[in-house]
Amino acid sequence: MLQVEIKTGRLKEIRKARKIGRPKLAKQVGITERQLAKIETSETAKISKNEISRLSHALQIPSMTLTGELPVTESDLQPIYKPQCTSGCCS
Question: Among the four 14, 21, 24, 91, which has the fewest Cβ within 10 Å?
Answer without folding.
Answer: 91
